[in-house]
Design a protein that fits this description.
The protein is of the alpha/beta class and about 375 residues long. It has helices spanning about 15-25, 50-60, 60-65, 95-105, 150-155, 220-230, 230-240, 240-245, 290-310, 315-325, 325-350, 350-370, and strands at about 1-10, 30-35, 45, 70-80, 80-90, 110-115, 115-125, 125-130, 135-145, 160-175, 185-190, 195-205, 210-215, 250-265, 275. The protein contains 12 helices and 15 strands. The chain binds flavin-adenine dinucleotide.
Length: about 375
């Protein structure tokens, strides 16, 4: 049986960053995933400035960001008009490009094991991982970075708290403008609160134009069928003035529609296993906080806690709770949940308070835009 200090299960963003940082520190580890390369799946497609800073803090940003599309001009628009133009660095990409860039540049292939982990069992101070082909690996600590796949948490007897079932929908699609857009990225706010949409965002990637639409429809809502059958017409019916700022465009390729649950696993239970990123808690894609959480978790665990636990041990549930209770983790995780509910209220609530918030956001950015343009 192979022995290692740290077994990371799942080579998405959180797991791959963790492996890259542990590799730099010379910590013995393996990274296990059933797929040689991360496939083209719809997840986070933009890094904002906070996420870029976190990636830089990992020490792995340089080679990764150079594989993604940098964008500077950020437009905010409503009613077919530019409300504010901001300049700050941003990156557009397909999620698999970002994860595979981390894997390619920073994960040592000798530490990568191809396989799907089926079970984790505790044996004294060691934890035995078994993959689908019967391979066994023993580790002092197992880092669960398995995203939304709940199978291992269930096998370990962890319990999940469902915070908001079917919280929102995230929709992604490629598009081709008839005449190239003037902006690099644009966020378009809904023109009224009746359409259940939070916002639509367009951005450049290395492979062309991409858009994400976030809202609170259920999958059976006629709006979803309309979007699938005639996306441009449906978008214009949701945002009658959109075309004034974008011109005509066609939606190319498949519309990807993902319903999102907000959940969090309970932390108190298992010796020798710690969960990161979506394997710990999910986020609202419209709030754009999922990769912030995943990077923050990977940073904290790799740079602070794993070195400390390897030196002082023991890696029981009590010791591991230091990570879940770290002020920096609590702050980022709490903000992620707060932003998820805030976006939902600001989009859907008919109360005077939230209507005022909607208008305040519009007026605030409008004023800043006017001041900036002199
Ligand atoms: C549609 C959508 C849009 C989003 N948009 C945004 C956004 O705009 N901004 C933002 O910040 N966040 C966004 N998010 C959230 C963000 O993408 C996630 O929070 C983040 O990618 C989670 O990374 P992760 O590494 O935890 O999980 P993942 O990237 O899902 O990685 C999990 C890995 O675990 C592996 N795995 C699973 N089970 C096993 C097993 N048994 N054995 C071995 N390996 C296993 C999988 O193969 C995979 O490689 C979005 C999410 C979705 C779904």
């Amino acid at each position: 049986m192979e022995h290692t200090d740290i077994a990371i299960v799942g080579a998405g963003l959180a797991g791959s960053l963790c492996a890259g940082m542990l590799g730099k520190k010379g910590v013995s580890h393996v990274l296990i995933d059933p797929r040689e390369a991360y496939p083209d799946e719809f997840r986070c497609e933009k890094f904002n400035h906070q996420q870029i800073e976190l990636l830089e803090e990992t020490g792995l940003a340089k080679n990764v960001l150079s594989d993604l599309m940098p964008v500077k001009d950020v437009w905010m628009a409503r009613f077919g008009r530019l409300v504010r133009k901001q300049h700050y660095p941003h990156y557009g990409f397909s999620y698999h490009q970002a994860v595979n860039a981390v894997r390619r540049h920073h994960v040592n292939q000798d530490n990568f094991k191809l396989g799907s982990v089926q079970s984790i069992t505790c044996s004294g101070q060691e934890h035995i991982i078994e993959t689908s082909d019967g391979t066994e690996i023993s580790a002092k600590l197992v880092v669960l970075a398995t995203g939304a796949n709940a199978a291992l948490q269930k096998q370990l007897g962890m319990s999940q708290e469902m915070l908001s079932e079917r919280h929102c929908l995230a929709i992604g699609f490629d598009l081709e403008p008839e005449t190239d857009f003037e902006f690099d990225t644009m966020t378009y706010w809904p023109e009224s609160a009746s359409g259940k949409m939070s916002y639509l965002t367009f951005f450049r990637t290395n492979t062309g134009w991409r858009a994400n639409l976030f809202g609170y429809w259920n999958l059976k809502d006629p709006q979803i069928a309309n979007l699938k059958s005639d996306p441009f017409r449906c978008l214009v019916s949701l945002m009658p003035n959109l075309e004034k700022i974008t011109g005509r465009f066609s939606v190319t390729g498949k519309l990807r529609v993902r319903p999102i649950n907000l959940y969090q696993w309970n932390a108190n239970q298992v010796d020798g296993v710690v969960a990161l990123g979506d394997a710990w808690s999910s986020s609202c894609p419209g709030a754009g906080t999922g990769t912030t959480k995943a990077m923050n978790d990977a940073l904290l665990i790799s740079k602070t806690f794993i070195p400390r636990w390897l030196e002082h041990g023991p890696m029981n549930a009590d010791t591991l709770s230091e990570f879940y209770n770290a002020p920096r983790k609590l702050e980022i995780d709490t903000e992620s949940i707060d932003e998820a509910y805030k976006l939902r209220h600001i989009t859907l609530s008919k109360s005077l308070y939230w209507q005022a918030q909607r208008w305040a956001r519009f007026l605030y950015h409008g004023m800043r835009g006017k001041l900036a343009s002199g």
